[in-house]
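Notes, p. 3: input format for complexes.
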Amino acid sequence: MPALLPPDRLEWVPGWGQAVGAAGYVHRPSTVEDVRGVLGLTSERGVPLVLRGAGRSYGDAAFLPEAVVLDLSRMDRILAWDPRTGEVDVEPGVTVERLWRFALGDGWWPPVVTGTMRPTLGGGLAMNVHGKNNWARGTLGEHCTGLDLMLASGEVVPVTPEADPELFHAVVGGFGQLGVIVRARLRLKRVHSGLLEVEAVSGRDLGEMLRLADEAKDRWEYVVGWIDAFPGGRRLGRGLLHFARHLEPEEDPAPARTLRTRVQDLPDTLFGILPKSVLWRLLKPWTNRPGMRTINAVKYRLGSTVGDGARYLQTLAEFSFLLDYVPGWERVYLPGGLIQHQSFVPAGAAERVFARQLEACRKAGLPSFLAVLKRHRPDPFLMGHGVDGYSLALDLPVTASNRERLWRLVRELAEPVVEAGGRFYPAKDAALPGELYRASVGEERLGRFAALKARLDPGGMLRSALAERLLGPRWWQ
Ligand SMILES: Cc1cc2nc3c(=O)[nH]c(=O)nc-3n(C[C@H](O)[C@H](O)[C@H](O)COP(=O)(O)OP(=O)(O)OC[C@H]3O[C@@H](n4cnc5c(N)ncnc54)[C@H](O)[C@@H]3O)c2cc1C
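Output follows (477 residues plus flavin-adenine dinucleotide):
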């Protein structure tokens, strides 16, 4: 075994959903020089290499069987910070959590955050992540003012949206196929309080959910919906929506207090008693169809009665990182794990397509245990997934007996999306057939992406299981 690949570095590298994974030789560099060293040795030996941040992509984006896995999470230094402008210079392994904790006391907040605070900014840019404010603020890449990209050759090139728009808009959202982001500059968002005003409303069916989200998108910065994916008929697509906005200057009587990270910290216990670390074990007995049907129904009933129309204040972290409330909740899905399917559909077709998807899940006996609706706008990135429309993210548990049916179901979910001119989100994907992904992106964009790959990484060193599945082996040739 060559020195680069000692057998003790062979680790199981899963997707976050635990339904897919592969063994790889994991390297965890902590400097740009280390990254260059690994690239050099990998290239000498002709071994493929896959980039990995915090491994928070649900599916196969950050592993490849028998490849070298370059885990960038140890490169987590904040390199420069200007509290007057909110501009920050980071290494790729800085997480969303580290960034907000660092900047909040100075009155700044990341303009785009994901539903969990664990992803790295390198991984976030590579997938061009969005938040609950996608309509208002766009994607993370739209707040990046430049990055340093290490090519497969080891050369580092500065890339900015002004000087090299083609490359910038392909690297961001290019799922780690063109180079390693070793440094990024971001512009944060000024906030005057650590609190948000939140409004909760219910929607009786899918049509109402979409209409309410659309009406709210210009009045509220954040718009997110939860859908009860179990009932059909008149109640198909019923759910709850949450809208939120930052407080204006003077609205918060004690901003110095609410901007403290201690005030933002998610509680360690539930109701002050139950340690949150055990919560996933309590959820486990409910993680089956009857249990989740009940949980979804109770949530809807409460939200559509006592909770309907409620307005309240919530900390930024509480509202933004709901999914971090139950640490390790993905473990409730073990041993099979879960996959997610998130499709983006133009506004005019969303009701028809999402109704078909929810019905297809029900008919297959595979209803989504957690379904999330968001309002989106188009983005300027080459491999971007934004449309003027909505996305529906469906969490689907995997078992030994449903696995094949589930993979067939994903095809069924995806076909109407392609017909409607919609897109898919690779960060959430594990099962989409490559031809449907390619049809959604279109020949012209695929051609431009392949041309950049052929120029920057002609030997095809940077790879991933996701890229091979969606784009095909040696897709750049
Ligand atoms: C509970 C949960 C909630 C989520 N909510 C959201 C959400 O609200 N919105 C959203 O958009 N996403 C969401 N995601 C998805 C997640 O934000 C993305 O998958 C993100 O890319 C994960 O970042 P990571 O650091 O874990 O990267 P990984 O998953 O490890 O890698 C992601 C991709 O980035 C590439 N990559 C990693 N580092 C680099 C680098 N330095 N240079 C170049 N390429 C690199 C990898 O090769 C891979 O293709 C959620 C995920 C989870 C688990």
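Residues 16, 50-57, 61-62, 72, 92, 114-116, 119-120, 122-124, 126-127, 129-131, 175-176, 180-181, 323, 427, 464 surround flavin-adenine dinucleotide (CB under 6 Å).
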